[in-house]
Design a protein that fits this description.
Number of domains: 2
CATH class of the largest domain: Alpha Beta
CATH topology of the largest domain: 2-enoyl-CoA Hydratase, Chain A, domain 1
Shape: globular
CATH superfamily of the largest domain: 2-enoyl-CoA Hydratase, Chain A, domain 1
Strand content: 15-25%
Strand order of the largest sheet: 1-2-3-5-7-10
Largest sheet: 6 strands, mixed
Distance between the termini: 30 Å
Radius of gyration: 19 Å
Structural class: alpha/beta
Number of strands: 10
CATH architecture of the largest domain: Alpha-Beta Complex
Order of helices and strands: EEHEEHHHEEHEEHHEHEHHHH
Amino acid sequence: MDVTDEDGVRTVTFDRPDVMNAMNTGVATELADAIAGTDPESHDAVVITGEGDAFSAGGDIQAMKERDAEPQVAKERIDASFGRIVEEAMTARVPVVAKVDGDAVGAGLAVVAVSDFAYAAESATFSCAFVRVGLVPDTGGTFLLPKLVGLREARRLAYTGEFVSAAEAAELGLVNEAVPEDELDEAVESLVAEFREGPSRTVGLMKRAMNENLGRRWDEALDHENFVQVMAYNSPEHEEGIDAFLEKRDPEWD
C-alpha cells in the first residue's frame, strides 16, 4: 500500500497493478493499519483508491493456493487482516471514502461497501465474486451488502458473482455516484473539502452512533444515540456552532 497525508486527508492506494491490486493478508493488514492511524485531530478523511486499471481484484488467488489450510489458522489470519479492515473502517473517527477508479471485485467490492462514501468512474465494474472461487463473501460482505442494496439484490450479487456496471452500482446504493472518469478526482475532492471545512469531531460522533447502532434494538439504539449526543453537546464544536448562529456568521471549525 502507498500511504500519503496531505491537507488533512490520508490517501491509501492499492499499488499492485501487475495483479490488478489483488489483496493478500499483508496488503489487507496494511490497509487496516493505515485507517487505524487516523483521528479527527489530524485527519479529516481517508480516501482509498487503486493504482493502474483496477481498484482491487479482491483476494490474491495465488496466495490462497499457497496458504496453510488448517481451519483455525485460517480463521485467525482472516480475523487479523481482512476482518480488521472492517473493524478499522467502521470505528475510524473520520469518514472513509472509496474512489473507485477501476474494477472492484470480491474483497475489493467489500472495501467499497464498508466505506462511508464511494464514488466510481463510469467505466468501473463490480462483482461479489467470492462464489466464483467457492468462497463466502468476507471483509464484511455478508453483513454490509444486504444493508446497502437490500437482501434480494445482495443475494443476486453474492450467489451469482455477476458483474454490474458503475451506473447499476449507483442505482443499487453500492456507490453514491458514478461519474465520468475524468471527473472522479474532482467529485471526491469536492466531498473531502466539505469534511475538511466541517466539524471533524462531530462527524466522527455521527459515524460512531450510526455504525454502533446497526445491530441494536430501537430502544438500545435510542439510548446510545442520546449518549453520543451528550458528548457532542459538551464539545467545542457545539459551542462554536451556537455562537456562530447567534452572531449571524459562518462557524469557524477547528
